[in-house]
Design a protein that fits this description.
heterodimer, A: four-stranded antiparallel sheet, 6 strands, 38% strand, B: Gyrase A, domain 2, six-stranded mixed sheet, 5 helices
Chain lengths: 88, 229
């Protein structure tokens, strides 16, 4: 069983979580160019290494979590509530 | 000493009133409900208030109390951005009771159900047989407490306080005794622990999984003689 840490519920089975995607800073709607919006909506870094990701603890507390996860090893070095911890 | 069942039984409690509350955890409504995340508290023997998420509460009460419960909670959160929704018909609820209830549940759920990790009055939401289920440890005991009896302390060990959630102090008690489904949620936690108390869990899931949950519980409890009542 792969365990992911939830700041509210503690370590839980990865099956309880849903992967939302890489976290990216949302451009200013008033100033962003179409290219910037396209990059925000569709382009991903997809690194083989540390990535800032958004996960949803859908079968647990239901909160969105900001997670720093290594995409090769699966190690997690930081996790926090994306809303209360200041989501992008 | 009263007899304690050595078997395990399950009861379908879907008819009980269920009210879902979403609100700012730092707001007035959260302060009025006053239940920490991961805990379930019986409030004045009227409703079982379950904090299922940092910003969500589930209130369980006798079947005929849904409407007054919604009105009362809405009044507590007046002027606040919050939602109070009667979800009675959208969720299924079952109670699993008996000395082997934890063993049966452990076959379906990865959470540590031992007393130090999941004591009476504790609640969590996790996968049970692959379905997202809110589990409330709400131990039942014979000769359950009533509001007027001495030591009727809510789970969590706190006395009912003025200004806290109440619904209908007179009618609801009779309703709870009728329903028999919320059992003795007025249980006192460790410290005032009753040796005669039976381990009991409330399991809440989406109503579409009602029959599935019943089937998996029946299957898991077969070796322990689980019977539906």
């Amino acid at each position: 069983m792969v365990l992911l840490p939830c700041p509210h519920c503690g370590p839980r089975d990865a099956a309880e979580f849903g992967y939302v995607g890489e976290r990216a800073a949302r451009p200013d709607p008033g100033a962003a160019t179409p290219q910037q919006w396209r990059g925000y909506l569709y382009l991903r870094r997809n690194p083989a290494g540390w990535a800032d990701e958004l996960w949803l603890h859908r079968a647990g507390c239901g909160r969105y979590l900001a997670m720093s996860r290594h995409t090769v090893t699966g190690d997690i070095r930081a996790v926090r509530d994306a809303a209360t911890g200041g989501a992008d | 000493m009263a007899e304690v069942s050595v078997e395990v039984s399950a009861t379908d409690c879907t008819d009980l009133a269920k009210v879902l509350v979403r609100a700012d955890p730092g707001g007035a409504l959260a302060a009025a409900l006053d239940v920490p995340f991961g805990r379930a508290v019986r409030d004045g023997n009227d409703a079982l208030v379950v904090r299922t998420a940092p910003d969500a509460w589930l209130l369980l009460a006798a079947a005929d109390l849904a409407t007054p419960l919604v009105r009362r909670v809405e009044a507590l959160g007046a002027g606040e951005f919050a939602s109070v929704v009667d979800v009675t018909h959208g969720h299924a609820l079952a109670r699993l009771t008996g000395t082997t209830a934890a063993v049966v549940l452990a076959k379906l759920c990865a959470i540590d159900l031992a007393d130090p990790a999941t004591p009476d009055g504790n609640t969590f939401r996790s996968l049970v047989a692959g379905v997202a289920v809110t589990v409330v440890r709400d131990d039942a005991r014979p000769g359950r407490l009533t509001a007027g009896s001495a030591g009727a302390t809510p789970a969590g060990g706190r006395d009912a306080r003025p200004g806290r959630l109440t619904v209908s102090p007179t009618a609801s008690l009779a309703s709870l005794d009728r329903s028999d489904a919320l059992g003795s949620a007025g249980a006192t936690p460790a410290g005032g622990r009753d040796a005669e108390r039976e381990r009991s869990y409330l399991l809440l899931c989406d109503r579409s999984y009602r029959q599935y949950l019943r089937d998996v519980l029946t299957d898991a409890g077969e070796e322990f003689g689980l019977a539906w009542t």
